User: What shape does this take?
Amino acid sequence: MSDTPITDEEREALLAFKAEYGREWRQYLQAAWLSYAYKGRHMAGKDTGILRSIRNQRGCQWLERVKI
Assistant: This one.
């Protein structure tokens, strides 16, 4: 798990996901990470790879405590 600050690109991908899923965005993203199933209109582009990279580098515990 990495404690390095997130990049602008990572922040943008997370904010796009958060905008689509609202208050429960963390639960939806964690479910996507665990099932490898990314759904939603913003997931057709580059965000899928960025979100997977965040998962691989930072992990699910990081997601629970990150504030964006």
